[in-house]
């Protein structure tokens, strides 16, 4: 290990910044070494005591087994706090972390891309009272790249090793290199949070960020997606309703098998294979076996179960076939607006231009200034009174935060007035 690397392992808070010239310093080891994996109630009790006695924000991360296991459950939880050090918790051995969450009280949690981890954390009793999302903070601060590695390098001058991000975290025991990677993911999160807070404060955006973080922390769990089979990759090729029924039957059968076996649905049957069967509508097992995705490695019993799904779709009466498209909860696709409502299309064009221009002036992504869905809903069904107050109330009803309303309501009011048809 070089002198620079030893310094990096011992005191990462004093890393050289990117602006000072030196190349980023590789972060090779956690400050206190790789912590043991907590997998028993007794060990968890010690972690709870340590983190309850810590001070300041708590860095939190979760590792899932996407692409390997069914669902999005957590297979490793990483935490770090001043005075407590780092901890790696196995949620398979410790499936209920409610006591840990209670011990943290109202401490601020620091996460990167919080919306990705909060659902699996909620499943094991971990729900933050307050949070700071370093990815979202980076977006609001105008960073062009907001991945954790890119931001740590840009802000703190360290290079994180990211080679294990897509491994199967359900593996037991977890290899030491993976545990090192996991511990390093929370090693500098609080340092990054502190630097971003200063940056946001200097840009006058800190209050905006706090409003965004509060909205994430208080958001209810997302409801189950309606007709999830419609999201099958390649679905755009499927035109006929009976072919759509084949997709639905195969998707449902695959999901049931994947859940029972606790494997990723794609490992049971690929989306490509589902679409090929829908387009081909095979009438025999032999015909199905000739399609891409149903090759020689698939046994006769498996082929028969998939063919049975095709036959169920073929036997459905017309009244039970799925309809084209989902029932819309909101405006139609913008490409159809010019024909359905030219005035709404004009409003949308003017509103998009206004929001995009303002986002560029503020040096942040347009979707963070105001979501495209909110802009569409406002333009499709504008308030009867085209006043600043009415537009502000409409934005608030669609879930816009106060800082977003302050930055866009007047622009949108003007845009819709300018695009209104002449009497």
TrEMBL record:
<feature type="region of interest" description="Disordered">
    <location>
        <begin position="318"/>
        <end position="342"/>
    </location>
</feature>
<dbReference type="InterPro" id="IPR002562">
    <property type="entry name" value="3'-5'_exonuclease_dom"/>
</dbReference>
<feature type="region of interest" description="Disordered">
    <location>
        <begin position="1"/>
        <end position="39"/>
    </location>
</feature>
<dbReference type="InterPro" id="IPR044876">
    <property type="entry name" value="HRDC_dom_sf"/>
</dbReference>
<dbReference type="InterPro" id="IPR036397">
    <property type="entry name" value="RNaseH_sf"/>
</dbReference>
<dbReference type="Pfam" id="PF00570">
    <property type="entry name" value="HRDC"/>
</dbReference>
<feature type="domain" description="HRDC">
    <location>
        <begin position="240"/>
        <end position="320"/>
    </location>
</feature>
<dbReference type="Pfam" id="PF18305">
    <property type="entry name" value="DNA_pol_A_exoN"/>
</dbReference>
<dbReference type="InterPro" id="IPR051086">
    <property type="entry name" value="RNase_D-like"/>
</dbReference>
<dbReference type="Pfam" id="PF01612">
    <property type="entry name" value="DNA_pol_A_exo1"/>
</dbReference>
<dbReference type="InterPro" id="IPR012337">
    <property type="entry name" value="RNaseH-like_sf"/>
</dbReference>
<dbReference type="InterPro" id="IPR041605">
    <property type="entry name" value="Exo_C"/>
</dbReference>
<feature type="compositionally biased region" description="Polar residues">
    <location>
        <begin position="1"/>
        <end position="14"/>
    </location>
</feature>
<protein>
    <submittedName>
        <fullName>Ribonuclease D</fullName>
    </submittedName>
</protein>
<dbReference type="InterPro" id="IPR002121">
    <property type="entry name" value="HRDC_dom"/>
</dbReference>
<dbReference type="InterPro" id="IPR010997">
    <property type="entry name" value="HRDC-like_sf"/>
</dbReference>
């Amino acid at each position: 290990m070089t002198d620079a690397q030893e310094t990096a392992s011992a005191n990462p808070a004093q890393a050289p910044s990117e602006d000072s010239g030196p190349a980023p310093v590789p972060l090779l080891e956690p400050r206190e070494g790789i912590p043991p994996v907590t997998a028993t109630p007794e060990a968890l009790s010690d972690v709870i005591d340590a983190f309850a006695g810590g001070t300041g924000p708590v860095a939190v991360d979760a590792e899932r087994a996407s692409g390997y296991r069914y669902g999005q459950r957590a297979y490793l939880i990483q935490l770090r706090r001043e005075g407590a050090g780092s901890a790696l918790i196995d949620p398979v051995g410790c499936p209920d972390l409610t006591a840990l969450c209670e011990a943290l009280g109202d401490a601020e949690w620091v996460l990167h891309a919080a919306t990705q981890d909060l659902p699996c954390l909620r499943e094991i009793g971990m729900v933050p009272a307050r949070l700071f999302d370093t990815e979202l903070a980076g977006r609001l601060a105008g960073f062009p790249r907001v991945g954790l590695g890119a931001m740590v390098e840009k802000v703190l001058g360290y290079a994180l090793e990211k080679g294990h991000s897509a491994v199967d975290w359900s593996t037991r025991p977890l290899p030491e290199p993976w545990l090192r990677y996991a511990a390093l993911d929370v090693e500098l999160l609080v340092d990054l949070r502190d630097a971003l807070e200063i940056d946001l404060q200097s840009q006058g955006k800190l209050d905006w960020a706090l409003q965004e973080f509060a909205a994430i922390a208080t958001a209810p769990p997302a409801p189950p997606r309606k007709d999830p089979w419609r999201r099958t990759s390649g679905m755009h090729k499927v035109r006929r309703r009976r072919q759509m029924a084949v997709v639905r039957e195969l998707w449902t059968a695959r999901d049931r098998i994947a859940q029972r076996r606790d494997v990723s649905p794609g490992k049971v049957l690929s989306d490509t294979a589902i679409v090929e069967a829908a387009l081909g509508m095979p009438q025999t097992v032999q015909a199905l076996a000739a399609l891409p995705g149903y090759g020689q490695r698939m046994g006769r019993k498996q082929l028969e179960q998939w063919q049975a799904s095709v036959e169920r779709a073929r036997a459905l009466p017309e009244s039970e076939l799925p309809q084209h498209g989902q029932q819309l909860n909101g405006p139609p696709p913008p490409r159809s607006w010019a024909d359905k409502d030219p005035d709404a299309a004009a409003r949308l064009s003017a509103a998009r231009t206004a929001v995009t221009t303002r986002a560029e002036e503020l040096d942040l992504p347009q979707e963070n200034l105001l979501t495209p869905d909110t802009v569409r809903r406002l333009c499709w069904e504008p308030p009867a009174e085209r006043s600043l107050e009415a537009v502000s109330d409409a934005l608030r009803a669609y879930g816009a935060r106060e800082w977003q309303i302050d930055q866009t309501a007047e622009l949108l009011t003007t845009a819709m007035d300018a695009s209104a048809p002449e009497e």
